[in-house]
Amino acid sequence: MTYDRDALLDLIRAEALQTGDFTLASGKKASYYLDCRKITLHPKGANLIAEGMLSVIESAGKLPDAVGGMAIGADPITASIVTIAGQRDLPIKGFMVRKEPKGHGMGKQVEGPVEPGQRVVIVEDVITSGGSAIKAVEAAQAFGLHVDCVIGIIDRLAGGAEAFAAKGLELKVLTTIRDFGIEP
């Protein structure tokens, strides 16, 4: 399967985009809601997202050692990318960032086959303020990983890109809310 942006837009429109009155994780009110789990856990959606994000990654020139992000939202994205990368014989591994360090065992916050010094890309579903992905970036950096960029499925255009820029990171996205005729 190759990346088909129009198919991803159609799937988001049909499965994930809802209109009404919603309260976001940030506490802000919104007239629409994006439930991207309906896409990241969908067989076609998982493939489209992985192909799209791999396309963004490959266009950067040098492959990262791994992709990952904040559990639970980034987990299916990471798994899809790692699966497609493996089918293409690309050496990209996956990792996940716990919301807080594990309270037992080795007490890790970053889990997976990554080592300090490796280059990684943080993945995220919906970018609003960037808060969740920034926490993943900070945990990855504290672990010793070098974060190349953040890639999201959809940007609500609500300050996330600016928040990443303030941290010296570029936000790359597959879509924005404007692709659905909604102004931020």
Automatic annotation (TrEMBL):
<dbReference type="GO" id="GO:0004588">
    <property type="term" value="F:orotate phosphoribosyltransferase activity"/>
</dbReference>
<keyword id="KW-0665">Pyrimidine biosynthesis</keyword>
<dbReference type="InterPro" id="IPR000836">
    <property type="entry name" value="PRTase_dom"/>
</dbReference>
<comment type="function">
    <text>Catalyzes the transfer of a ribosyl phosphate group from 5-phosphoribose 1-diphosphate to orotate, leading to the formation of orotidine monophosphate (OMP).</text>
</comment>
<feature type="binding site">
    <location>
        <position position="128"/>
    </location>
    <ligand>
        <name>orotate</name>
    </ligand>
</feature>
<dbReference type="InterPro" id="IPR029057">
    <property type="entry name" value="PRTase-like"/>
</dbReference>
<keyword id="KW-0460">Magnesium</keyword>
<dbReference type="GO" id="GO:0044205">
    <property type="term" value="P:'de novo' UMP biosynthetic process"/>
</dbReference>
<feature type="binding site">
    <location>
        <position position="102"/>
    </location>
    <ligand>
        <name>5-phospho-alpha-D-ribose 1-diphosphate</name>
    </ligand>
</feature>
<feature type="binding site" description="in other chain">
    <location>
        <position position="99"/>
    </location>
    <ligand>
        <name>5-phospho-alpha-D-ribose 1-diphosphate</name>
    </ligand>
</feature>
<keyword id="KW-0808">Transferase</keyword>
<feature type="binding site">
    <location>
        <position position="156"/>
    </location>
    <ligand>
        <name>orotate</name>
    </ligand>
</feature>
<dbReference type="GO" id="GO:0019856">
    <property type="term" value="P:pyrimidine nucleobase biosynthetic process"/>
</dbReference>
<feature type="binding site">
    <location>
        <position position="104"/>
    </location>
    <ligand>
        <name>5-phospho-alpha-D-ribose 1-diphosphate</name>
    </ligand>
</feature>
<feature type="binding site">
    <location>
        <position position="98"/>
    </location>
    <ligand>
        <name>5-phospho-alpha-D-ribose 1-diphosphate</name>
    </ligand>
</feature>
<comment type="similarity">
    <text>Belongs to the purine/pyrimidine phosphoribosyltransferase family. PyrE subfamily.</text>
</comment>
<feature type="binding site" description="in other chain">
    <location>
        <begin position="124"/>
        <end position="132"/>
    </location>
    <ligand>
        <name>5-phospho-alpha-D-ribose 1-diphosphate</name>
    </ligand>
</feature>
<comment type="pathway">
    <text>Pyrimidine metabolism; UMP biosynthesis via de novo pathway; UMP from orotate: step 1/2.</text>
</comment>
<keyword id="KW-0328">Glycosyltransferase</keyword>
<comment type="subunit">
    <text>Homodimer.</text>
</comment>
<dbReference type="InterPro" id="IPR023031">
    <property type="entry name" value="OPRT"/>
</dbReference>
<dbReference type="InterPro" id="IPR004467">
    <property type="entry name" value="Or_phspho_trans_dom"/>
</dbReference>
<protein>
    <recommendedName>
        <fullName>Orotate phosphoribosyltransferase</fullName>
        <ecNumber>2.4.2.10</ecNumber>
    </recommendedName>
</protein>
<dbReference type="GO" id="GO:0000287">
    <property type="term" value="F:magnesium ion binding"/>
</dbReference>
